[in-house]
Amino acid sequence: MTTVTATTIAAPATAIEAVGLRKSYGEKLVLDGIDLRIEEGTIFALLGPNGAGKTTTVEILSTLVRADGGQARVAGHDLTRQADGVRRSIGVTGQFAAVDGLLNAEENLLLMADLHHLDRREARRRTAELLERFELTEAARKPVSTFSGGMRRKLDLAMTLVGEPRIIFLDEPTTGLDPRSRRTMWEIIRRLVAEQGVTIFLTTQYLEEADQLADRIAVLDRGRLVAEGTAEELKRRIPGGHIRLAFADESRLATAAALFAGSAADHEELTLRIAGDGSLPTLRAVLDVLDDASVPAESLTVHTPDLDDVFLALTGSANAPKENAR
Q1: Which of 30, 81, 195, 199 has the most CB atoms at less than 10 Å from its CB?
Q2: Out of 179-188, 195-204, 280-289, which region has the weakest mean confidence (pLDDT)?
Q3: Looking at domain 241-303, which of 1.10.357, 1.10.8, 1.10.1760, 3.30.70 is its CATH number?
Q4: What is the pTM of this model?
Q5: Measured between alpha carbons, how far is 130 from 113 in angstroms, rounded to an integer?
Q6: What are the C-alpha distances in Å from 197 to residues 20, 165, 166?
Q7: For 14-235, which CATH class?
């Protein structure tokens, strides 16, 4: 007789959990009871138009501002009763590099190590490690005032890591960077998560950035979360997705067009456009219909709305998120 032992798969640990967070400034309601649950070792992106409450959310969760209502735990610490524990567990990088231009890169990192009360030996070890990781070793003793924007942002993030935080809040981390520097920063962020298990809470004005980096994305509008999910899940919520089939000749195109009501044929390109969300069940259904009718397609591509479409549809805003949004 064989005994089967049931195994329990542990749920992913929670890095940040918030319930009913509220915040007002005077008569202006900025956060209207938002709920968040962010797993450890993931990248979470918060999107929203100007004034949606993104920066206020970061300020509350990083203990810079006190919420008017609701509860939150960050790195297992109660946000209100254990604020010191929260601060020891997090790092915060703002929209603009908070480095001292009168010092060099090494001095900036050593100053941060001193603020974290590291002894001299550990401070120098940690500084050398971070300079190497961020490819700043050659520039370590050059004045930061001579650094490019991309180098300043790398140094800023390196300074955030001196205290070895488990959770990092990145508020518009690539604002003002050129495309090459922005992609370098993306790679650094990915490595932090993949190699060290760090949790990233990201706000960004670049929708492509959220699409490229985030495991989950939440959209904040007028102080409320109006949607949350993976990038693909959010895209599938927006009308306009379709499947594009290409055929070898006009005869097969015509036959296929007759099989799908509401489809649109392009007789010059020999393609057929069928409304669909691109999910596996939808694709299987389309391919089954073609197979039953013995009408092979030359190729199939799925077209879904991008995050720009999602943002506009969910917020009703003609303006993409900007770096100064509160």
Answers
A1: 199
A2: 179-188
A3: 3.30.70
A4: 0.77
A5: 11
A6: 27, 11, 8
A7: alpha beta
